[in-house]
């Protein structure tokens, strides 16, 4: 117990100069500082004693976050110049101690990562992610978080892909990670397409020549179609001008032709022995990006692969039925014709309860669409009712 008390006293003494500065500059009163010391003393004794819990560290860190927020507000109101990293450094220290002591607690790691991300301490965050993934290489959510963080905060698709590839080396059997990788690539295509449209360079996508076989199941990494840099050169001699040649060249690269999501799908299907349920999940994931020029190519490839591997599967049937309407807005003039094509495909499988159940899930959100043509609404409602009767065995 003496050792715990000594440690607590040591950590408390390190904060004395900071507290004296607060009192001297009248940021906190003597009474408030006494309360801060008492609170910190209670936390430190609890953390350094036997039986400390992860929740104790969390409460301590939360207290210091609230204290630092109050300090910042008073400093701003009083117009005082003070280094803003003092409280931040203390919170980092608490969370670092927590993850060292309870390195198996994912919740602590996530709190540490989120706080560091909020403080924009990107170099430190990179180190924390490395430590967390080194200790938890089979945690799928951490690999997904790391990949999303790099693409969302830094637009670093190369690093995001690296995290996904490394994650799949450890979690090859995780469908969630394969789907997240596919979603990451679809998201990236959507960003590139949006950028082209803003710049007025949205032209029909031209597919490149077929690549060589994309993968080797015994290799550590998936072979993706070749891309150069980030497939685009954002720099130009004049900052107000756009490198149009680079953006136009982007149309013919795998980044926009859908080759990379297709490569991921093919590799995943081989890994899962042509699992039709996974193929269905991949189809639905890709179909969410309904405004991409390459969407039909990707979905057609998914359906073709499923029909070749599992032609009699309900999952294959439902994807084949939904394909004509993929990427077509429900309120657009083209949708009735597309829906008629889907309905024609449904006819052959309308008595299958598994297909009927999926049809209901697919059509119910469409039925509630505002501005839907009355005749189309009637047709969708009738199809849903027929499917419900099949499911109920009527």
Automatic annotation (TrEMBL):
Matching Pfam families: HAT_PRP39_N, U3_assoc_6
Coiled coil: none
Location(s), subcellular: Nucleus, Nucleolus
U3 small nucleolar RNA-associated protein 6 N-terminal domain residues: 12-83
Superkingdom of the organism of origin: Eukaryota
Family membership noted in the UniProt record: Belongs to the UTP6 family.
The protein's name: U3 small nucleolar RNA-associated protein 6 N-terminal domain-containing protein
Organism of this sequence: Aspergillus aculeatus (strain ATCC 16872 / CBS 172.66 / WB 5094)
